[in-house]
Amino acid sequence: MTTQTSRAWLLSAPALVLFAVLLLVPLLMTFMLSFNSFDFYGGIGTDLSLANYAEVLGDSYFYEIFGRTFLIALITTAICAAIGVPQAYILYRMSPFWRSITVLIVIGPLLISVVVRTLGWAILLGNKGVINTALMDIGLIERPIRMMYTSGGIVLALVHVMVPFMVLAVWAALQRQDPATEAAAESLGARPRTIFFRIILPQAIPGVLSGSLIVFSLSASAFATPAILGGRRVKVVSTTVYDEFLNTLNWPLGAAIAMLLLVAVLIVMLSWNSLVERRYGEVFE
Amino acid sequence: MAFLELHGLTKRFGAFTAVEELSFAVERGSFVSLLGPSGCGKTTTLQMVAGFEAPTEGKIVLDGKNLAGIPARERGLGIVFQTYALFAHMTVEENVGFGLEMRKVSKAERKRRIAAALDLVHLSHLGDRYPRAMSGGQRQRVALARALVIEPQLLLLDEPLSNLDAKLREEMQLELRRIQREAGVTTLMVTHDQSEALALSDSIVVMDQGRLRQDATPFDIYETPQSSFVSRFLGKSNNLSARLDSTGSEGSALVCGSLRLHGPLVDLRPGPVEIALRPERIALVDPEAGQLRGTVAERVFMGNQWLLRIETELGDMLVMRYNTGRAEAEEGEVVGLDWKPEDIRILPVEETSA
Ligand SMILES: Nc1ncnc2c1ncn2[C@@H]1O[C@H](COP(=O)(O)OP(=O)(O)O)[C@@H](O)[C@H]1O
Ligand SMILES: [Mg+2]
Asked: Could you tell me if B9 and B56 lie in one domain?
C-alpha cells in the first residue's frame, strides 16, 4: 500500500469505526434476532428458523400495513415533487439576498424536532383541534372532519417534513445547469414558457429523481410522524415493529418485519437508481 | 451605410461604466473581432447587440433598422456562447433543430436543414449523440451549427475558442474561418486573444476599459498601432520613452536616453513621446555597427525562432530572430542592435490610466 492510500484509510478510520459500531453491529444483531423463535410464556428461544418471516409473509394483515406504508410514501413523494419543483425554481430565480433568506425559511423546519412539529400538526388536525373548531365556529361544517388517525393526516405532516429535501435536491440540479442555456434558447426564438418547459424543467429532472429517492425512503421508514398522527389505528411498518418490540415483546417477529422493510426500501431504491442511470447516465454528468 | 452600426453605445451598471461611447460598423459578410483585455466590456457589448442587455445610451442599427426595444428572441441572431450552452438533455440533432422548431419549420424541412448544418461543421455522423459524450471541439461545432441553422442575419461569438486546448484552438481557428466564409454570414466575435483576432478577422476593434482604442484591419492594427496600449496588446513590442525633436518630410528626429534616433514622419508635436519597436524588426549586428549595444541576457529557442532578451542602456530589449539554421548570438555575448528608421513607431504618451 502506498503512503497516500494508507493515510486515506487512517483518516477515514474514525468514521468507519463509528459506522460499524453504530450501524452495522445493531443491524447484524437485528438480522440474527429475526431467526430466533418466540414463545409468549418462555420469551425468546434459541432455536433458529424462518418461522418469523413465514408468519409475516403469510398474513394479509401485514400486507395491508406494507401496502399502506408504501402508498403513503409514494403519495408524499408525488406531493413533495409538485410543491418542491416550483419552490426550487422560484428560489433559483431570486436575487442572492432574498435567496439566502428564503433558503433559511425552507430549511427552517429541519431545525425543529420532528416530534415537536408533528405534535403541532396534532393540535391543528384533532377533532377538537384548531382547524375543526374554526370550521365549526364559522358554520361551514356541523361535525368535525376526521383528520387525526388517518393516512391523509400522516401524508400531510410527512410532506411538511420532507419538502425541504426535495427543494434542495431540485435547486442543486437547477444550479448545475448553465445559465447561458436559457439565453441560448431565447436567442433561438423561444418564449419564457417554452424555455421553462423545454429547457429548465428537463434539466431539473435528475434533481427531482434524486429528491424523490430521499423523500420516498425517509417517508417509508418514518416513525415519529405516523406514530403520533396515526396512533394504533393507522399502522405503518415502523410503528408495527415498535409495537412488536415494546408491547407484544415479540422481538424476533419485530426484527423480521424490520428486515423486510429494509429489504423492500433497498429494492425500490436500487431499481429506481438503475432506472435513472439507464435513462440519464448518458445525458447528465 | 454599413450592415451593423453601433452609435455611441454606453452601458452603465450603477455608477460603473462598462461600455462608454462605443461606435463602430460591421460590413455585410465580414468578420469583425472585438478585442480587449478581460473585463473591458466586450461581453457587455455583445449582450447589447444580442438583446440581453439594454444600452444605457446610444443605439444599434442592423440592416437599417434600430434594434431598440426588439426582444432577443425576435432579433434572429445566431449566438455562440463561451460555455457553448448546449441543451444537455437533447441530442445533437435536437439541439440544432431547436431554433427551427421555434420558427415552426416543417419536420421534413427541419430534417434537411439540420443535416446541412451538421454537414457544414463536419458532424453528420454524430447527430444522435448527447453533448456530454462529445469532446470540447465537437461541442463547439454543435453550438456553431445550432446558431447557423436559423440562417441568422448576424453571428455573434463570445470567446468561442477559449475553452479549447492550444492545438485544437489553432485547428478551430481555420475551421471557424472556413465555416464563416461558406455560410457567408456577417460575424462579430469577442475575444481577448490577439492572435485569434489577427488570424480570423477582416477588421479588428480594440477596446480598453469600455472605450474604443482602434478600429482597423489586422495588418494596420499590427503595423501602425495608434497608441501604446494597442502596440503592446497586439504582439510583442519594445516600448521606450523618448523625446520628439522635430518631424518633417525627411522623417523625425528623436532623442532616447543618450541616443539620437531617426523615425518616420508623424503627426505629433515635438515633446515627450513613446517609441515602439517590434522584436522581429531588430537585426543583430557587430557591436560597433548597430544603433544600440547590449549583452544577450537570455536566449529562448522556440523551434522556428529565437527569442532574445538583451540588456542595453535603454533597458531590456526583446529581439526575435528566425531560425535559419544557425544561432546568431550566445548568451553573454555583446551584440549590436540595428533597425530601419521606418520600423520605429512614434506614439503619443499615454495619459496615465489605472
Ligand atoms: N450585470 C452586471 N452588473 C454589474 N457589473 C457588470 C455586469 N456585467 C458586467 N459587469 C462589469 O462590466 C465589466 C465588463 O464586463 P464584460 O463585458 O463581461 O467584460 P469582458 O467580456 O470584456 O471580459 C466588468 O468589470 C464587469 O464586472
Ligand atoms: Mg467576456
From this structure: yes
Residue of B82, B103, B130 with shortest CB distance to A283: B130
CB atoms within 10 A of CB B320: 17
Does residue B353 sit within a domain? no
Residue where a domain stops, chosen among B204, B228, B252: B228
**Residue B262 and residue B291: Cα distance in Å, rounded?**
10
Of chain B, the percentage scoring pLDDT greater than 90 comes to 87
C-alpha cell at B84: 457553448
Distance CA B296, CA B301 (A): 13
Give the pLDDT confidence of B222-238 residue by residue, as tens digits.
Answer: 999 999 999 999 999 99
Pick the closest to residue A53 from A40, A41, A38, A68 (CA basis): A38
The CATH number for B334's domain is: 2.40.50.140
- pLDDT higher than 60, residue B353: no
Cell numbers given for B349: 504618451
The pLDDT of residue A5: 85
Q: Can you tell me which residue has the cell 434594434?
A: B67
C-beta neighbour count of A19 within 10 angstroms = 12
* B77 and B125 together in one domain: yes
Separation CA B87–CA B103 (nearest Å):
18
pLDDT tens digits, B290-347: 899 999 999 999 999 999 999 999 999 999 999 998 888 889 999 999 999 999 999 9
What's the farthest any 2 CA atoms get from each other in chain A?
Answer: 78
| CA-nearest residue, atom 17 of ligand 1 | B41
Do B15 and B129 lie in one domain? The reply is: yes
Span A50-276: which CATH code?
A: 1.10.3720.10
**Residues B90 and B204 both lie in one domain:** yes
Report strand pairing: B251-256 vs B259-263.
antiparallel
> What is the predicted pLDDT for the residue at B135?
92
User: Is B266 domain-assigned?
Assistant: yes
Q: Which residues contact B212 (CB under 8 A, 6 or more apart)?
A: B21, B22, B23, B24, B205, B206
Residue numbers in A near B81 (CB within 8 A): 180, 183-184
Asked whether this complex has an ipTM greater than 0.90, the answer is: no
Q: How many domains does chain B have?
A: 2
What is the pLDDT at residue B354? Answer: 44
Q: Which domain holds residue B27?
A: 4-228
Report percent pLDDT > 70 for chain A: 99
Do B89 and B124 lie in one domain? The reply is: yes
Q: Which residues of B touch A187 (CB under 8 A)?
A: 50-51, 72-73, 75, 77-79
Q: Tens digits of per-residue pLDDT, B182-207?
A: 999 999 999 999 999 999 999 999 99
Query: Using the beta-carbon criterion (under 8 Å), do B98 and A178 form an inter-chain contact?
Result: no
Instruction: Please report which helix (H) or strand (E) contains residue B101, including its range.
Output: helix B92-102
Q: Residue B19 has which C-alpha cell?
A: 461600455
- Residue to substitute from A174, A175, A188, A197, interface B, most B β-carbons within 10 A: A188
| B272 and B221 together in one domain | no
- The finding on whether B41 has its CB within 6 A of some atom of ligand 1 is yes
Domain definitions of chain A by residue range? 50-276
Q: What integer best gives the mean pLDDT of chain A? A: 90
* Domain boundary pick from B199, B228, B257: B228
Asked if B265 reaches chain A (Cβ–Cβ under 8 Å), the answer is: no
pLDDT at residue B121, rounded to an integer: 92
